[in-house]
Design brief:
Length: about 200
């Protein structure tokens, strides 16, 4: 992963265009959108190298993971079209909720997972779970336990962001875009009480 140092304060907001209604709410741009896209393409290449010979089900983790998942899937599709690996890919969705305001909570809610039983023939192939952010790892741990109950052949997790937090449970994604300090970030579908999802930068 690409590590962002603890003392990194981000880029000045004056360098970027962003919605006027957020002028008073943002401090800086932590990771520009172009850098996110370049890193996501690199993750797609790594995924193709590792599991490009398998049919996969991509399980998009809503709501915060939808933009990362959409961009990652698009890069994988482009790479698949331009390579000698023909990849059969399906996309399904599951919703996790583990935040109250800006704090990760012990209460993890999973909705949508009951529909995974309908995909069991495909679950026996590879499963890729794109997630926007991992902090303590408890949410991911709960999701993996849920998914593994359907006995997939292989489960891989891709996360755009992983936070360096002292309370981490040691559950680490297979593919990581950026490792960041324990800062609360919004944008690129990550929110604060449903606000800021419309920002393309973090």
């Amino acid at each position: 992963s690409l590590q962002i140092k603890d003392d990194w304060s981000g880029y000045s907001l004056d360098l970027f265009a962003y919605p006027e209604h957020y002028f008073e709410d943002l401090k800086s741009v932590y990771i520009p959108h172009g850098v996110i896209m370049d890193r996501t393409e690199r993750l797609a290449r790594n995924i193709m190298d590792d599991i490009g010979d398998h049919d996969i089900v991509v399980l998009c983790v809503l709501k915060g993971g939808y933009k990362f998942c959409a961009d990652l899937v698009e890069f994988i599709k482009v790479l698949s079209r331009n390579s000698n690996k023909s990849l059969l890919m399906r996309v399904d969705f599951i919703r996790l909720k583990s935040y109250c305001n800006d704090q990760s909570t012990q209460d993890i809610q999973i909705t949508g997972g009951e529909d995974l039983s309908l995909l069991k023939p495909i679950l026996l192939c590879s499963r890729l779970i794109p997630k926007a952010i991992v902090d303590t790892g408890k949410t991911m741990q709960a999701l993996l336990k849920h998914v593994e109950g359907f006995k997939p052949k292989m489960v891989k997790v891709a996360s755009l962001l992983v936070k360096r937090v002292p309370a981490a449970v040691g559950c680490h994604p297979d593919y990581v875009g950026f490792e960041i300090p324990n800062q609360f970030v919004v944008g690129y579908a990550l929110d604060y009480n449903e606000y800021f999802r419309d920002l393309n930068v973090r």
